[in-house]
Amino acid sequence: AEDLEAILGATPATRQTLLFSATMPPRITAIARRHLRDPVQIRIARESAKANTAPRVRQTAYIAPRAQKLAALCRVLDAETPTSAIVFCRTRNEVDEVTETLRGRGYAAEALHGGMSQDQRDKVMKKLRSGAAELLLATDVAARGLDIDKLTHVINYDVPSAADAYVHRIGRVGRAGREGVAITIAEPREHRLLKNIEQITKQRIEVATLPTVADLRSKRLEITRASLREVLLAGDLDHMRVVVESLAEEFDVMDIAAAAVKLAHGTAGSGDDDEHIDIVEPPRERAGRSDRTQERGRSAPRGGDRSESKSKREKPSRGSAAGNRNIVRLYIGAGRNMGMRPQDLVGAITGEAGIRGGEIGAIEIGDKFSIVEIPADIAPQVQEALRGTTIRGKKVTVRPER
User: Fold this and answer.
1) pLDDT, position 296
2) What pLDDT score does 31 carry?
3) Phi/psi at 176 (nearest 5 deg)?
4) How far is Cα 114 from Cα 348, in angstroms, rounded to an integer?
5) CA separation, residue 81 to residues 76, 135, 271 (Å)
6) Which of 27, 34, 118, 280 is the most buried (most CB within 10 A)?
7) How distant, in Å, are the alpha carbons of 218, 247, 251, 257, 260 from that of 254?
């Protein structure tokens, strides 16, 4: 705001000034009143959807526990297969951490935030516009003013606290008559924020259940089938027939084709099919009762056992690493400064301690250390295994977090 005042203060009094804004909150209105002379407000009317037609921007939300949001994001990306998408995060650190994790899982992801130089920002945008990157992870501030022609998806890694922020984010898809998809990953406690956004924007956000592993496998099979169909239609397969003919002397032709499909399908898998995500069913709407009444109905009954209700309310929802098991947070003396990534920790723990990746909970990576959530009953086994190995070529300190 100070920069804006300085620029306008240095311009001639005879200037012509126009103001454009996707929303008109009080602060923007105050700027208009101060710097515009006898302004005329031109408001673009909301496009009214025709009966029995789908909205131009499909708005969907998925509910996932906090510890499993990243796994939920990956599952949504696999199901949606966006051509080009922006994933909005709250902070710079979150942008960096999620970007590194997605890269480790094979996604072409780039980060964009205020801590980057203009040269770095230009390189990132060039990759996105050329198709070299398919995902852009950004904060609200860093993404202001971005216009990407081929953008198909906007994904909120968190629910924006203000409806205006939500409008600005999803307004980047569905422009100029194009269709788009807006997806929000919400924690169970954030469901009311979604309702507030619906009330202000007068648009419905469908709360759906996360795609299952079976859904993803079916999606990948369909992609494999479509790819094979394109190859068959293109022809030019003569040089491959010799392989089929030689194998046909030993195996059935149908079995050979099935093996080829299996091979092609295997290269398209993400390798994260076994990652467990707790299914959180969307809250049911109650006819004739307001959200506030519903909240009261879920609270502890008057005169009842409040301690039991409080314990249920305060118990955090955890992923497969917890289940009904107690959790220990392990301190590992290596962080971002050493190039530590979540996949490095997961690989070391599963490889050395012999446990499944699904048993590992949330991972936090700082500059000089990392924190990993592990079930208490296998924590000693993990500590002992990591003390005897190296991560990224170095011995590291491993102990329970103090």
Assistant:
1) 42
2) 84
3) 50, 40
4) 33
5) 8, 11, 16
6) 280
7) 21, 11, 8, 5, 10
pLDDT digits (tens, 9 = 90+) for 226-261: 888 888 888 888 888 888 888 888 888 888 888 888
Task: Yes or no: say if 76 and 182 are a contact pair by the CB < 8 Å rule.
Answer: no
Strands (E), 64-218: 85-88, 109-112, 135-138, 153-156, 180-186, 206-208
Query: Tens of pLDDT along 191-212?
Result: 888 888 888 888 889 888 888 8
Residue 249 host element (H or E): none
Give exposure, 15-52, as e/b (b: 16+ Cβ within 10 Å). Answer: eeeeeeeeeeeeeeeebeeebeeeeeeeeeeeeeeeee
Question: Which residues share a beta bridge with 85?
Answer: 135, 153
Token pair belonging to 98 = 């999620």
Model pTM score = 0.56
Q: Rounded to whole angstroms, what are the CA distances from 292 to 162, 271, 288, 296?
A: 19, 43, 12, 6
Q: Residue 95: which residues within 8 A CB-CB, separation 6 or more?
A: 89, 111, 112, 113, 137, 138, 139
Q: Average pLDDT of 76-80?
A: 89
E-only strand ranges, 75-219: 85-88, 109-112, 135-138, 153-156, 180-186, 206-208
pLDDT at residue 293 is higher than 90: no
| DSSP-derived secondary structure letter, 171 | T
Instruction: Please identify which residue in the block is written with the tokens 């469908």.
Output: 206
